[in-house]
Amino acid sequence: MKIRRILTLQMFAALALTISFASCSKKGSSKGGSQATGWKINDKKGGFQYNDKFKKQETPPGMVSIEGGTFTMGKVEDDVMHDWNNTPNQQHVQSFFMDETEVTNMMYAEYLFWLKTVFPPDQENYKNIYTGALPDTLVWRNRLGYNETMTNNYLRHPAYGSYPVVGVNWIQASEFSKWRTDRVNEAILEREQYLKKDAKINEVDASNTFSTEAYLASPSTARGGNEEIVFRGKGAKKGKAAKPKTTKDGKTIEPKNVFAQRSSGIILPEYRLPTEAEWEYAATALNGIREYNIYKGKKKYPWKGQYTRSGKRQMRGDQLANFKQGKGDYGGIAGWSDDGADITNKVKAYPPNDFGLYDMAGNVAEWVQDVYRPMVDDEANDFNYFRGNVYTKNKIGEDGKVEMVTAETVKYDTLSNGKVMARNFPGQIAQVPVDENETYLRYNFSTSDNRNYRDGDKQSTRYFDFAGSEEGDKKTDSKVMYNSPKHMISVDSLGNMNRQYDKTAMSKRTTLVNDDSRVYKGGSWRDRAYWLDPASRRYYPQDMATDYIGFRCAMSKVGPKDNKKKPRG
C-alpha cells in the first residue's frame, strides 16, 4: 500500500511538471508574435508587416477550381490514325483554375475596345497595337463555299456574342491572357482601395496604363507615377490616399501597407493558356469515375460512357458535343437537329464535364501553351509537364532602375504571314533573356530558351559531335532534327514588306515541326468524333489562325492542393 501511494504521488508530480512545461511553451508563443523572434507582427508603430490572416486564393472571374492529381496522359484507346504522338505516360499536375467556357466574342470584343480606347490606331505610334490584336475574319472563306455572313458578322454581331472567338492565333491568345491579368488585378486593387475608384475607366490613356508586374516592381511609377491614382497606403477614404501620421513627439509614421505586394495576398497570379497536361487532365475529368484512390475504368470522352449521345431520359439521343456527324452532316436533319449547331454554338449549350467545364469536346478546338513535339518526354519530367519555357527578366536601365516601355520603345514583330503585332505595351516592363547571372552553376536550367530541350536541338541529332564545341558545331538544314520550311519576311525603311517563300519546301523539307509549332487540343465543329478524345493532339503554326481553333485561359493555384474536406467514396 505504501509503495502504491508513493507511485501515485510520483505520477501526480510528473503530471504537474508536464502541465508546467506545456504552459511555458504556450506562453512562449504569444498570440501575434513571431515564432522566429517573438517580436510583434503587424505592429501599428511599424516593423514587419505580413498578411497572417490569408485564407485562400479567391476564384478568378469566369473560372472554376480544378484539383490537381495524377493521371495517364495520352491515348488509352486504339490509335486508329497511327499518329504515334500520344503514347500513354503517367503525369501529375498541380491544382489550378480554368475558364468555365471558351473565351467568347464578347470577351474578346472588350479587349479590342480597351486597346482601341487606350492606344488609338489613328496615332502612328500605336496603329499596329489594335490591328495586331484583331482576329482574322477571313478564316471563314472557302473557295467553293459561301461563308460571307460569318466573315462579316461572326466577331461583331450580338447574335454571336456568346459564341467562342475564332480567327485568333496562338500569339494573340497569349497577349489576351496578359491583358486580362492586368485588368483583373487592377479591379482588385481598386476594390481594396489601393487605386482610385473608376480611374481605370475615366483616367486612363497610353501614358498611364496599369501593369501588374510594373506595379509590383515599382509601384510609385505605376499609372504614370500619378499619386492621385496609385494610393500610398490602404484605407483611402472618399478617393483620397491614407496620409502619414505624426505622433506627440513629432515622429512621422507612414501608412500601414504603403503599397500592395505579393505578400499582401490579394494580387492574383497571371492568366495564361493552359499547358497541354493541364488541358487534357481537366477535359478527361477522371474524378467522376474515382473510388477512393483508384479510377474505375477508362474514359474515351470528357463524359462517362463510350458514346457521343446522351442516355438520360430527358435528352435521350441528343449529342453531347458539337462536332461533324459525317460527310456533309454538321448539325443533323432540319427540324430535328441532333447537336443544335452547324458551325460553332454558344457556350454552355451542352452539359459540363465532372469538373464543371463546358465544351471540352467539340465546338472549337483550343490552343494550349506547349510547343509541339511528337513525344512527351516523361523520362525528363512527370510533374507539371510543359515544353515551351522561355525565361526572361526585367531589363535594368543605366540608372539601375527597371526600364519601362514607352510609346517610342514599343517593339513590333512581323509574323511569317506579314501580320504586325506589338510585342509589349507602354507601361509594361521591358524584358530581356536570362543570362549567366541566373544560369551559372545551375542544374535545373542552363539557357533562356528551352523549347527544344532534349528533342529538336543539335544534341538530339545523330549527326551531333559530342566531342566538339556546341557553338561551333553548326549543322546544315539536312542534318537537323526538324528541317521545317524557313519562309523569310522583312520590312524596308519605307514600310514595304519583302516576302521570300522557301522554294525548297516541296523538295527538301521533310516536316512542318519547329519551335513555333503549338499544340491544340480537342475536337471542333469541323471534326469527326475521333478527335473528341481529350488525349488527341495536333499542331499548327503559332502565328496562323483558323475558323475552328479558339482558346480558354488558366491560372495556377497558390497554397494547398484543395481547400475543403470531402468524402473519400
Summarize the structure.
The chain is of the alpha+beta class and about 575 residues long. It is about 15% helix and about 15% strand.
Head-to-tail CA distance between termini: 55 Å
| Helical residues, percent | 10-25%
Characterize the main sheet. Answer: 4 strands, mixed
Average pLDDT rating:
84
Order of helices and strands: HEEEEHHHHHHEEHEEEEEEEEEHEEEEEE
How large, in whole angstroms, is the Cα Rg? 29 Å
> Uncertain runs with pLDDT below 50, 5 residues or more?
21-29, 469-474
Dominant shape:
globular
Structural class: alpha+beta
Strand tally, please? 21
Proportion in β-strands: 5-15%
Instruction: Quickly count the helices.
Output: 9
Sheet with the most strands: spatial strand order: 19-18-11-20
Structural features:
13% strand; 4-stranded mixed beta sheet; 3-stranded antiparallel beta sheet; alpha+beta; single chain; globular; 569 residues
What does this protein structure show overall?
The structure is a single chain. The chain has about 575 residues and is an alpha+beta fold. The chain has nine helices and 21 strands. It has a four-stranded mixed sheet with strand order 19-18-11-20. A three-stranded antiparallel sheet has the order 1-4-21, with no helix packed on it. The two termini are about 55 Å apart.
Sequence-ordered SSE layout with sheet pairings:
Layout lengths: L1 H27 L34 E4 L2 E5 L15 E5 L2 E4 L5 H14 L8 H7 L14 H6 L16 H22 L7 H4 L9 H6 L27 E2 L5 E2 L22 H9 L5 E2 L2 E2 L36 E2 L2 E2 L27 E7 L20 E3 L17 E3 L5 E3 L8 E3 L2 H4 L48 E4 L5 E4 L16 E5 L15 E5 L7 E2 L3 E3 L13
Parallel strand pairs: 11-20
Antiparallel strand pairs: 1-4, 2-3, 4-21, 5-6, 7-8, 9-10, 11-18, 12-15, 13-14, 16-17, 18-19
